[in-house]
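Record filed here:
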Amino acid sequence: MNLDGLWRRTVENLVREGIIRSEAVKRAFLKYPRYLFVEDKYRKYAHLDEPLPIPAGQTISAPHMVAIMLELAELKPGMNVLEIGTGSGWNASLIAELVKTDVYTIERIPELVEFARRNLERAGVKNVHVIPGDGTLGFPPKAPYDRIIVTAGAPDIPKPLVEQLKPGGKLIIPVGSYHLWQDLLEVIKLEDGSIKVKNHGGVAFVPLIGEHGWRE
């Protein structure tokens, strides 16, 4: 079976398992398959539902994990979204397809900034802006955001990210230990500026490094 056929089967499995719940997320997954965002030597494994290596010792998340976070975020066209941790650029391409507008994504590792930009160009994604920098500081020039999605595990909820959310906005972030075990949190900013936190269970992400994250 070719890469496209294998990928379609993965997407259908995620739908059957109830992980991909919305037609919009399914369409985004089919439009931007994961094999466009990995190095050539890993393309034949891109349909497997597990993380894969990308440059600089980082990983591209398993398809089910990406789907869970996107469904939690409830992205709608026109939303202003910030992503922290560009990695391969795959998640940003899916976000961009769901919101149909410019998406800002921050990556601290120069090698991955270039890797993501190449991948996005190859996939034909025009509305993702990859910004080098410390993601734990957010990106004030384009704040406030309807959604902020963090793809690395933080020691706690970074204050600048909450500050850059609109009232009613949501931050999706893994919080917990330095390596491997975190809880996936949905942080909702209330009208009075306080937050409500929902815990969606255990996840495993690389550490979020930065001023309001882990030290290297």
Remarks:
- The radius of gyration is 16 Å.
- Residues 3-16 form the longest helix (14 residues).
- The first strand starts at residue 52 and ends at 54.
- The chain has a mean pLDDT of 96.
